[in-house]
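pasting for the record
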Amino acid sequence: MIEEVNTPSWDKLLEGKWALVDFWAPWCQPCKVQEPILEKLAQQLPQLTILKLNIDDNRYLSQQLSVRNIPSLILYYNKVERQRFVGVQPLERLMETINKYINK
């Protein structure tokens, strides 16, 4: 499942789990390309929480996390950044990289 989030709920949603956060904007064409890939990823990795954060609505957080390009995907475990992806990522690369972390 993919869930859209805003800044106030940010910390609670990353607590005690693996989460992939998609930093995106509605006007971003590459972000639209990334979306169906993330939907497939959610189906294949149900233990991974996937969150979408609109950078236009959450500028402060995006700046604080140094998100300069979109789409940007950040993999977290228990609020700690583990991996960052910039640009459209193929499903195979996401699966391979995330599985390395989750299956340690």
